[in-house]
């Protein structure tokens, strides 16, 4: 989608200059590509946006949308099939922007290497007059999986599609061999940069969100507890959203938002505050009474589909019963249950 954030009223389009020669080069997460020398790159954590400078339009709230160009992101060592990744990206776009028409039955092998899976989009209500045509493609480059969405106003799609094809053909996993290659002009994006001593992991996406934004499960099976202050944002994050994890911060690169998080583990070993012990529900009755670790807990409302034998971890309170109230996460269904301690 060519928009960052919610759609706004239509504005007059600025026709970008004719694309220049593909002599600018950018290295990004282990791969390189060429792009027109009169285009710019805008950097987000975990992704890039590339296009003519005049195609980047700033809204009143300071966020951008783009009328011509492409988004690019890289998944490290993804085990998902390429069709799965393309489908996921298409569904994410459709969920975030209802005006986008997506037909998964058109998902196909591109038949035009290096792309191996492509699907098209049509936005019937972009923030300018007319419609927008897009193409979402995925391919594998060594250990990397590269995903790209290219887009332009439908009336100009034929011209820009040929430019995008040339960019695609230039993709390589090798370093830039010639120092004389023109460096790309980079415009900093609004997300705060993280210092070099902070470890960041990109290529993740949200599998599910539970407990009104309190618990986030990622595609690799890891689970994260969100700081209460940030659940107002994470409660409306969408599954399939791409995220980057930087120590105790999770950054939703689709929504340009972040949340403070703590990784939840089920290890019984006491390896520090990030480790939480798991317990088995010994008995469950009427979706409201649970016996865990020899203590009785009563649901504050109802905890549906929480059953005897399920493994849980306490994200608040204690399984020892030394509490007035508690919350536990059912590891089978990713649901958070709020209970009174008996």
Return the CATH architecture of the largest domain: 3-Layer(aba) Sandwich
Query: Mind telling me the CATH class of the largest domain?
Result: Alpha Beta
End-to-end CA span: 51 Å
In DSSP terms (H or I, runs of 4 or more residues), the helix count works out at 3
SSE run:
EEEEEEEHEEEEHEEEEEHEEEEEEEEE
Give the DSSP E fraction (strand runs of 2 or more residues).
Answer: 35-45%
State the strand order across the main sheet.
8-9-10-11-7-4-3-13
The computed structural class is mainly beta
CATH superfamily of the largest domain: Mog1/PsbP, alpha/beta/alpha sandwich
CATH fold-level topology of the largest domain = Protein Transport Mog1p, Chain A
The oligomeric status of these chains comes to single chain
Pick out its properties.
mainly beta; Protein Transport Mog1p, Chain A; 3 domains; 8-stranded mixed β-sheet; 6-stranded antiparallel barrel; 25 strands; 9% helix
